[in-house]
Amino acid sequence: MITGIKENLQKIKETLPENVTLVAVSKTKPNSDIQEAYDAGQRVFGENKIQEMVGKYDALPKDIEWHMIGHLQRNKVKYMAHFVSLIHGVDSFKTLVEINKQAKKHDRIIHCLLQARIAKEDTKFGLPFAEIESILASEELKELENVKITGLMGMATFTDDQAQLQEEFSSLANFFNVHQKKHTDLTTLSMGMSGDYSLAIENGSNMVRIGSSIFGVRNYIA
Ligand SMILES: *Cc1c(COP(=O)(O)O)cnc(C)c1O
């Protein structure tokens, strides 16, 4: 079967500045597709369901960095705590507490991004900026020795309106820049998907999560 995964990856990588990390979003896609991307040199993959990611971790090469990009169910964090490399969608302090607890069992420090709410749609998850500020400033955070907040993540509204996307991305980038000065651990700004990653990068993103432009359209909504 000719999938073109390798070609798609090459095309995208040519357009990415050097400082931008590509997360290949492989949710719903079979292991054979991931292996094809792996053989083309890709090592960072994103999934949005914990159980699906665990199955793929077990089956695929162990030098893959697995990113959890979906909404988190706290009771499932334990299944990925031994291997997950970055959790993008953290949107509550309670979830950080659970990640910390599970990370500790494996003597790991799990890197997390706080998800900011930037979309106008009310279907998107994420924290208002004020809540991110209070988490970053909290004394309780310092007690969570097995989590490290290394950046922020945002999902823009699903729209073609470039002005609106621009506004959403730049609002998060500005917020990130301000807080990066106070919290030196904040190095990652995860924003941009297949449809909007160029604009996200123009606005300062240094991590893009790209699925359908690499693997083709998904057959079902994930
Ligand atoms: C599915 C998904 C993506 C990738 O979307 P594409 O449009 O296929 O590139 C990126 N980020 C998150 C959080 C996702 O759930």
UniProtKB/TrEMBL annotation:
Pfam families (alphabetical): Ala_racemase_N (PF01168)
Entry-annotated residues carrying N6-(pyridoxal phosphate)lysine: 27
Domain Alanine racemase N-terminal: 5-218
The keyword Chaperone appears for this protein: no
Keywords for this protein: Pyridoxal phosphate
HAMAP family to which the protein is assigned, alphabetical: PLP_homeostasis
Role of this protein: Pyridoxal 5'-phosphate (PLP)-binding protein, which is involved in PLP homeostasis.
Name this protein carries in UniProt: Pyridoxal phosphate homeostasis protein
